[in-house]
Amino acid sequence: MITIEGQTNVTQLRSGANAAQNLGKELGKFVVTTMEIPWKHTHRKLGGNPEVVIMVETMEESWLDRMISKLPDCDTVVGVGGGQAIDAAKYISWKKGVRLVSIPTILSVDAFVTPAIGIRRNHEVTYVGESTPDPLVIDFEILRTAPPELNIAGIGDLISVHTGTHDWEYAQKRGRSEYTFSSADIAAARNILAKLEPLLSDICENNDKGLMAIVEGYMCINTICLPAGHYRVEEGSEHYLFYELEERLQRPFVHGYIVGLGIYLMSQLQNNRFEWIRELMDRVGLTYHPGDMGITRDDLCSSLLNLKSYVHKKPQLWYTVIDDSEITREWAVEAMTGLKF
Ligand SMILES: [Zn+2]
After folding, report:
1. Most CB contacts within 10 A, which of 52, 85, 114, 121?
2. Which regions of the chain are under pLDDT 70?
3. CA of 218 to the centre of ligand 1 (A)
4. Looking at residue 2, what is its pLDDT?
5. pLDDT tens, 210-228?
6. DSSP labels, 136-175
7. CB contact at 8 A, 185 and 194
8. How many Å lie between the centroid of ligand 1 and the Cα of residue 263?
């Protein structure tokens, strides 16, 4: 059992090779939100008799509200799965005021530790309300039923501390920080990355220690970002390149993969220990090459050339290295050297 000082957004953490075993028998009347594959790997282990099992089809508010209107009487909602199944459970917990139990079956997105509930209202992502798991169940065997590279992808939003903290410092130096600057927060965030470094091979292997390191990393990020009220230490230019690509190509990406690509390119734009962070991403086995995401050389080059005007059209985006950059075709070609298409 680990102890993390501060606001983690996890009331209780239960972890182990079989942490979810027979948990259903301890719960009173409960409902489950899940999807086909995660439920297949979990339901026998969980035990108990859920009042209803909701297969999440969409995160549209109207659909979720329709499900809630049909819910039987219950005192707990158990989310079993990835981002959507967990967010659906968070939404029901918040709307109905019932206990939330989260059992992530994959670590590729951090929905299971973030308080904000992401849904879609008329197809647009909207954040409504907050909720906290009690307990958060980290069952290593269940997590290992997911493709290992997708669990590794979970480290993307932790490695992004490398470029995110640099961008915040950069903005501060130019008097453009949107928030009260905190060098303590910068140091704490970099410390998370430093603590992960000796565990890269464990993460790569998806062993218990490695999987737990990702979960702990997320919880530590929360201790910095929840009191601060923003995620600036882990979100900056590397995410903005991803937003540009998403808008350009109109399709979703595995979050950690595309953030990894952003770190690869933006750490160069920042002159920020590129070789070190590239080697770190290779050692942990993070997928970040454009070819693995179906991104062509032309698309990526166009995205880089458009990046500065893209961020200038979005006033809600924070000040980063992109704002003063001069990204030329020569720079882009040079920065993409080493990427596989
Ligand atoms: Zn992210």
Report:
1. 85
2. 1-2
3. 11
4. 61
5. 999 999 999 999 999 999 9
6. EEEEHHHHTTS-HHHHHGGGHHHHTHHHHHHHHHHHHHTT
7. no
8. 11
For ligand 1, the distance from its centroid to the CA atom of residue 315, given in whole angstroms, is: 19
**Distance of CA 256 from the midpoint of ligand 1 (Å):** 7
Percent of the chain with pLDDT over 90: 95
Q: Which residue spans within 264-339 are E strands per DSSP?
A: none
Extract the tokens encoding 193.
Answer: 């990355």
> What top-level class would CATH report for the domain 13-146?
alpha beta
Q: Which residues line ion ligand 1, judged by CB < 5 Å?
A: 157
Neighbouring residues of 149: CB distance < 8 A, sequence distance ≥ 6? 285, 287
CA of 231 from ligand 1 middle (Å) equals 9
**Equal CATH topology for 13-146 and 149-335:** no
Q: What is the pTM of this model?
A: 0.94
- Phi, psi angles (nearest 5°) of residue 236: -160, -140
CATH of 149-335, picked from 3.40.50.300, 3.40.430.10, 1.20.1090.10, 1.10.730.10, is 1.20.1090.10
The residue extents of the domains of the chain are: 13-146, 149-335
Tell me the CA–centroid distance for residue 52 and ligand 1, in Å: 32
